[in-house]
Specification:
The protein is an alpha+beta fold. About 40% of the residues lie in helices and about 25% in strands. It contains three helices and three strands.
């Protein structure tokens, strides 16, 4: 099959080099985040990263810092790469404690109980 007859995704994959130079945009910045939220649509996935800040003594707010918008395909690829890197980090440093794991399990259990009750 001639190169120009191949699907565009295959042609792009063949043209993207893992050794391509990295060039930073003039708008590049590093952001620390300790909160995040996600929005989904049929066309894209939006992840908003934020920082929990104290707005007055005893009162906090989520200060949104940055939203990243990606295609569902890119998100799925990113998820795989991210999971691989977390697993590698845990192999060196030990398991990461997920403070939401118990609440997620409880939420799932409640949802299952509600389905059975209905």
């Amino acid at each position: 099959m001639a190169e120009d007859e191949k699907p565009i995704t295959e042609r792009l994959r063949n043209n993207v080099s893992k050794n391509a130079p990295i060039v930073r945009s003039e708008h590049y910045r590093t952001v620390y985040a300790d909160t995040s939220k996600m929005g989904l649509s049929p066309w894209d996935i939006r992840i908003t990263f934020g920082l929990l800040v104290e707005v007055e003594p005893g009162r906090t707010a989520n200060e949104e810092q940055l939203t990243v918008i990606v295609s569902p395909q890119h998100a799925k690829t990113f998820l795989r790469i991210f999971a691989d890197n977390i697993a590698a980090w845990e192999n060196v440093h030990g398991e990461i404690n997920d403070p939401l794991a118990d609440s997620a399990a409880e939420t799932a259990a409640i949802g299952q109980q509600q389905e059975v009750a209905e």
